[in-house]
């Protein structure tokens, strides 16, 4: 792939594109993916800035997330048939991580979240989602750039051990039985060994695969360790992993309403999840709702005006001429956010 063309991924062609022999290559208004760029480069076409326009954020997020999801699927499939089980880190660093970093630079939580909603590829899209949202959370926690880069890779690979779990267990439409659950839990130790044995990774990243289902009170798996033995990276990924799983449609259940997910996460802060990391996540998530329209549990649509410090999950909402303080209307809640 020609590097000079790569900068145009996620942008839109202004006019029909022809090669030097007049052969039609791509139609006007195409949103450029890495496959398009590969095709353009094969035709020895070098794009110029005037050949493209910047698309809106939603289209960019969708392209980036779809690209990453497709690349993750390819990585999973390679590993299934690769006896060494060494991770293709070059492919990951070239085709996945740059997109994840570009998307997380935008800091547009709800726009990004809309693009992350799983289609029929939850297993792969979930890895991308956890990579992006963990990177955002790492920024909110003020991690240093080198720590952030490490976290992005660790979060994106957190579920890599699932390639060794039978597909019928991963996509089972109902709850797992005891034997299936025991098999599913092995993805943590399998992932740990795969990352540990891959050149170009470090032990901290391997520990995220091992520990992202451990809980502060020792109720998690695979080893039921207490909070002081869980790494900070693992605690970050645990928060994001739960959030994205609960807000996504799965084989066996529909996505939970956003408000319900946040309320459950807040309830879990003391015991299951790291309280500081989880509170930063919830507060930032709520702050980024200001100005957004939300659907309330009674079906009305309002705009979030202010997040209340004493009760961030119950903000001040404007509906027509009314201002409703949800902290005083306990019967009302936010069902979902409408992206700007």
Automatic annotation (TrEMBL):
<dbReference type="Pfam" id="PF13487">
    <property type="entry name" value="HD_5"/>
</dbReference>
<dbReference type="InterPro" id="IPR037522">
    <property type="entry name" value="HD_GYP_dom"/>
</dbReference>
<feature type="domain" description="HD-GYP">
    <location>
        <begin position="101"/>
        <end position="297"/>
    </location>
</feature>
<dbReference type="InterPro" id="IPR003607">
    <property type="entry name" value="HD/PDEase_dom"/>
</dbReference>
<protein>
    <recommendedName>
        <fullName>HD-GYP domain-containing protein</fullName>
    </recommendedName>
</protein>
């Amino acid at each position: 792939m020609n590097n000079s063309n790569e900068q145009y991924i996620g942008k839109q062609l202004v006019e029909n594109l022809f090669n030097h022999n007049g052969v039609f290559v791509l139609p006007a208004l195409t949103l450029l993916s890495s496959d398009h760029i590969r095709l353009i480069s094969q035709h020895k076409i070098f794009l110029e800035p005037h050949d493209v326009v910047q698309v809106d954020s939603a289209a960019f997020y969708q392209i980036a997330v779809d690209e990453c999801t497709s690349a993750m699927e390819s990585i999973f499939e390679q590993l299934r048939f690769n006896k060494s089980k060494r991770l293709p880190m070059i492919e990951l660093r070239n085709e996945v991580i740059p997109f994840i970093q570009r998307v997380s630079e935008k800091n547009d939580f709800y726009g990004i979240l809309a693009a992350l909603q799983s289609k029929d590829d939850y297993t792969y899209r979930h890895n991308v989602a956890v990579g992006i949202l963990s990177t955002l959370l790492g920024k909110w926690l003020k991690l240093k750039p080198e720590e952030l880069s490490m976290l992005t890779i660790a979060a994106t690979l957190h579920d890599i051990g699932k390639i060794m779990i039978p597909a019928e267990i991963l996509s089972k439409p109902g709850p797992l039985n005891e034997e299936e659950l025991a098999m599913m839990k092995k993805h943590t130790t399998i992932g740990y060994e795969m990352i540990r044995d891959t050149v170009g990774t470090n032990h901290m990243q391997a520990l995220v695969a091992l520990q992202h289902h451990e809980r502060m009170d020792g109720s998690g798996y695979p080893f039921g360790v207490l909070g002081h033995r869980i790494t900070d990276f693992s605690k970050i990924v645990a928060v994001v992993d739960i959030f994205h799983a609960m807000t996504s449609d799965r084989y066996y259940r529909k996505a939970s309403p956003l408000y319900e997910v946040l309320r459950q996460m807040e309830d879990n802060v003391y015991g299951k999840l790291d309280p500081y990391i989880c509170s930063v996540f919830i507060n930032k998530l709520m702050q980024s709702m200001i100005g957004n329209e939300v659907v309330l549990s009674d079906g009305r649509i309002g705009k979030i005006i202010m997040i209340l410090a004493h009760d961030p999950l119950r903000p001040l909402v404007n509906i027509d001429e009314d201002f409703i303080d949800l902290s005083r209307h306990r019967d009302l809640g936010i069902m979902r956010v409408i992206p700007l």
